[in-house]
Amino acid sequence: MAHTHSARSRAIEPFHVMALLARANELQAAGHDVIHLEIGEPDFTTAAPIVAAGQAALAAGHTRYTAARGLPALREAIAGFYQQRYGVTIDPQRILITPGGSGALLLASSLLVDPGKHWLLADPGYPCNRHFLRLVEGGAQLVPVGPDVNYQLTADLVERHWDKDTVGALVASPANPTGTVLSRDQLASLSRATREHHGHLVVDEIYHGLTYGMDAASVLEVDDEAFVLNSFSKYFGMTGWRLGWLVAPPSAVADLEKLAQNLYISAPSMAQHAALACFQPETLSILEERRAEFARRRDFLLPALRELGFGIAVEPQGAFYLYADISAFGGDAFAFCRHFLETEHLAFTPGLDFGRHLAGHHVRFAYTQSLPRLEEAVQRIARGLRSWQG
């Protein structure tokens, strides 16, 4: 007799971009030159000093489990990084090393959300956030946000949408898909608003380091009780190594450690040893060069898209995305994306993946390709718009 799958698994939506990606790969296999602007993954491979540290760790036999909270030396290095970059002192005991930022999100949602309770999330936002909440039988209360609030939750919105089942708010700075950043003052007022309701503030700082012309403030500068999710995937360029971290208040650490032991035992040991090289001056100078390269790409693609008629009301200050309104061109975003994939072999992401608020009118471009590729992409967009409208 056939068993039906859980309601939980049915409620978690797939990434809609994956259907486009599968088609893009088919086109590529057939010999077409596809330009990929759809995936949130830097095009740079992991920096050489990190790879060398990983290889040395393997050669030295560092292939066993680490402690559930991660290598003490790595937790100390991260604490040192907070001191150096943000001027905040964090006890390394409060840092848990996780399998990617996803592991940190899994721990935080498992710890803080009971069945039927929910967090406030900005819509548009990163889809896995609401899916992790569904996984722990909680929910996401999606708050529609637009350019007027920089696509971010505000203290006022928290006030307005908080109800008897709300237990916290999750914000992202810089945010995916919009690239907007929360200032120190905005973080402080969000912290006050959640605290007044005896709720938790969880901040996704996964794109920290990838900001342009400014540095993002960490919530830990203004709130020692906040939960911070971070990752080695974006600024540090270690996507496939699956490594992230969670900074938690001291009172939460024992329960988080227990969850980590049960959910995944430990993060990958060779990745942790490799990550020790992330904080060395030679590595950081490579990463800063890459940051400058992303800034050049944004500064090329943003005006080029605006000139073609895409609506980008807010200049993104971080991450590597442009979230664009396609209302000027009519039609729905999924059909629009499919048109460009089929006719111009150019892949980008429909807004549908990031929530519900005006999702059908938006697309996301990831500027994770070289400038010459982006120049070629803009030519294809200009041509594709003519065939779309014609």
TrEMBL record:
EC number of the protein: 2.6.1.-
Key word ATP-binding present: no
Record GO terms (molecular function): transaminase activity
Keywords: Aminotransferase, Pyridoxal phosphate, Transferase
Annotated protein name in UniProt: Aminotransferase
Origin organism lineage: Bacteria, Pseudomonadati, Pseudomonadota, Gammaproteobacteria, Pseudomonadales
Family note: Belongs to the class-I pyridoxal-phosphate-dependent aminotransferase family.
Cofactor: pyridoxal 5'-phosphate
Source organism per UniProt: Pseudomonas taiwanensis
InterPro entries the record matches: Aminotransferase_I/II_large, AspAT/PAT-like, NHTrfase_class1_PyrdxlP-BS, PyrdxlP-dep_Trfase, PyrdxlP-dep_Trfase_major
